[in-house]
Amino acid sequence: MTDRATEPAATHPAEDPPAEARLAELAAEYTRLRPRLVGVAYSLVGTVAEAQDVVSDCWLRLTAADAQEPVRDVEAWSVVAVARRAVDVLRSARVRREEYVGPWLPEPLVDAVAEDPADRVTLDDTVSFALMVVLETLTPAERTTWVLHEVFGMPFPEVAAVVGRSPAAVRQLAVRARAHVAAGAPRVDVGAAEHRRAVEAFLRAVGHGDLAGLLSVLDPDVLLTSDGGGLQGVARRPVAGADRVARFLVGVRRKMAADERVVPLTVNGGPGFAVLAGATTRFVCSFTLRGGRVRRVDLVVAPDKLPR
């Protein structure tokens, strides 16, 4: 996989297709690739809007590059171009996130709200919301290496071209990234039936404000993180421990207005729910299981990260 053909295409100028036909051909191929490209960008930057901006920007770069020298492998060129641009955005975003009020969580991907199939993000099943949170703790180079190699299968020499390191250095980055991910991302170690029962019990307890019911499904070391971007009434520090997390969730439930309702959803391919008031999303919750109990709860309340 390369980001651009290193040699001119073996065609005579007279055989080149008309500019309009070539542009239409590129557009069709790029549209086909768009879900994958947005997935690459989202995995690196953590927000859908920035990922879509990256992909749109790289479309303009593709047409400009192809006008100078035909791009023979559009998919290879596009994946590398998107990854490089996403790394630039990630490095800039890290500075802004250090000044963010309260914890910063990725934008949740809620499968029920994607209206345009071309904008639906395509990710490997292993990229859960909890894993996206862990990826935030990696350096940009480590995150890029892990995402491109582990999730999208890019060989190390090509990852090296994206991050600007040697293949040997990239292999070391991969080792460190794997260790961080293994230490930080909870493993899914329950069967489908047990998983479903735990999800139903959690949602039932939250929906009824049942403190005892919540305690029965929460891991003793459960951690709850809220991302409100400075909004009032949102915990600005993680809440740790089953009793404190259960009381926090029951308190949230008690504050819900009469017209607000809990709706089960799939968040980044895993279990979760949203609280809706009419057609407005108030917040999205993702939770992660370990040993049949909820080990992590992530609440995204910041309005600019919520599905419309």
TrEMBL record:
List residues of the RNA polymerase sigma-70 region domain: 30-94
Coiled-coil regions, chain positions: none
Q: Which domain of life is it from?
A: Bacteria
**Keywords (A to Z) from UniProt:** Sigma factor, Transcription, Transcription regulation
- Which InterPro entries does UniProt cross-reference here? ECF_Sigma-70_Domain, NTF2-like_dom_sf, RNA_pol_sigma70_r2, RNA_pol_sigma70_r4_t2, RNA_pol_sigma_r2, RNA_pol_sigma_r3/r4-like, WH-like_DNA-bd_sf
Tell whether Transmembrane helix is among the UniProt keywords. Answer: no
What Pfam families has UniProt attached to this entry?
A: Sigma70_r2 (PF04542), Sigma70_r4_2 (PF08281)
- Complex and partners: Interacts transiently with the RNA polymerase catalytic core formed by RpoA, RpoB, RpoC and RpoZ (2 alpha, 1 beta, 1 beta' and 1 omega subunit) to form the RNA polymerase holoenzyme that can initiate transcription.
Please state which protein family the record places this protein in. Belongs to the sigma-70 factor family. ECF subfamily.
Provide the protein name: RNA polymerase sigma-70 factor (ECF subfamily)
Which species is this UniProt entry from?
A: Saccharothrix texasensis
